[in-house]
Design a protein that fits this description.
The chain is mostly helical. It has one domain. It contains 5 helices and no strands. The longest helix is centred in the first third of the chain and has 39 residues. The chain starts with a helix and ends with a helix. The relative contact order is 0.09.
């Protein structure tokens, strides 16, 4: 019984973390969109979407939570980010490139900026985890060498 309770707490903690980090990711994506609109000088676009701003922010937050949830799935559940899924991602990217033609011209650069921000975040996370793993391996080899 105690094991079940501790597992529930871990799940609760994990889901809370996914919600917070996903919300933050969504807000980062929304901020990058706003920055792009201001840099590109598309204030008329910003004014036209100002009436639905709460729905846009909510959509970004939900998208961030979904991305974070997919990214943090443990083990066997995380099939979307494993190597066998690469072919499906390639097909999905090609479908998105063709579907991008259906998106209004003013919104296309915003989506591309969001994808670029996601790529930078993903690469940063990858390189940080690689360097921390290498550091852990070095510490393990240093401490392991002294224990023989």
């Amino acid at each position: 019984m105690r094991h079940i309770i501790s597992r529930r707490k871990w799940d609760e903690k994990r889901y809370t973390e996914v919600l917070w980090k996903g919300s933050f990711l969504g807000l980062v994506l929304w901020t990058s969109s706003v920055l792009w609109i201001s840099i590109a000088g598309q204030m008329d676009l910003a004014e036209s979407y100002f009436s639905i701003l709460p729905m846009i922010i909510t959509g970004y937050v939900f998208a961030g939570i979904l991305i974070q949830w997919l990214y943090t799935m443990p083990g066997k559940e995380n099939i979307w980010l494993k190597r066998p899924a690469l072919m499906y991602w390639i097909i999905l990217v090609f479908m998105l490139v063709f579907a991008e033609q259906l998106i209004p011209y003013e919104i296309r650069p915003i989506i591309n900026v969001n994808l670029a921000v996601l790529l930078v975040i993903w690469l940063g996370d990858f390189f940080l985890s690689e360097t921390s793993c290498q550091g852990a391996e070095r510490r393990k080899s240093i401490w392991g060498a002294g224990s023989d």
